[in-house]
Amino acid sequence: MTSIDAVAHKYRVLNCGHLAHGLAALLSAAEANALSYLDLVEQLVDLELQGRETNRLAANLRKAGFPVIKRLEEFDDRHQTTITKRQVSQLLDLRFLEERANLVFIGPPGVGKTHLAVGIGLKALEAGYKVLFTTALALVETLELAELRGELKKKIAGLLKFDLPIIDELGYLPMNRQGLYNLFQLINGLYEYRSVILTTNKDFTNWGEFFRDENVAVPIVDRLIHHSHVFMLGGESYRLKQKIGN
Among the four residues 8, 111, 141, 191, which has the most C-beta atoms within 10 Å? Predict the structure, then answer.
């Protein structure tokens, strides 16, 4: 008579580890509830599919590189004077991804730009999209290193595989000329092909301060704001208010 362990081993050989792990429990439940053969087979398949989906989401979450997990449900809009909960909720249908539109959050430090970017990114990831979070500084350094190794095109091609790159803190530090041109190549590759979420502490009229080259700054800005939703965030620093409150 075939044992459960023997059958479970065969499932492992077929790379159905979730099914193998839960086989005994499912068989006991099926016997207790007098399930039909068809219902049992369906539950077995569902168990494996659910396990694989959980693993896929976990792997994509690791690859996304979020610095912290910030949910939109945790966003405190009481300190935000210029963006409403309704405006944020309207983004959650993720239509902007289908439209290849960008989201740009502009405002001073501490008003929730990164929180919103991460929260929307998590929603997109859970919906099956591949998301990448990076600061602008880390991105420029990554592209510069790839350029020095003669692998810039390869690196950009790899970044284009993500459905939603999130570029955080653009404008906090100025860029050198080579970094600027590398960034332009990436933005040009993403243009009308992928959506981007961008956070910055400077409005577009002041981007020359860190781009240092209007000839490249203008086409970068043009590609970022074309087909985009721009949100100007105001209010006092949420982090500062928390620190003062403590």
Answer: 111
